[in-house]
Amino acid sequence: MKLLKAVTNIFYDDLNVGLNLFVSGLGFTIYHDERPNGNLFCVVERDGIKFHLHESSEWAAKDRPEIRIETDDIEALYAEINESHPELLHPNSATVTLRPWGAREFAMLDESKVCVIIQQWPAV
Length: 124
Prior knowledge:
Elements (H helix, E strand, L loop, with lengths): L7 E5 L2 H11 L3 E5 L7 E6 L2 E7 L1 H6 L3 E5 L3 H11 L12 E2 L5 E6 L5 E6 L4
Parallel strand pairs: 1-4, 5-8
Antiparallel strand pairs: 2-3, 3-4, 6-7, 7-8
């Protein structure tokens, strides 16, 4: 037996804000959609990474997560996002920067203050 993945729940006051960040901005696809059944919940997926997006004003008010996603080509992903959705780049981390801990990073921030940090560690 082995653990396969960690899947994060992210709560939004408006689910469309999350779909804009993950689907439009980061190129995720909707893997599972409960909206036609009256439930404001979607699973988004890209490259085997999944997030559960929920619409819940109560829980959104309690938690604005910071999420890290590792990539193997930070320059290409940055160029993709900067070209298509530059408004989603975090004002404090809007370019690829080498951090003191050794990772190269940039960040995205949606209007509800969910932060996604994209990072690439140096090859070992």
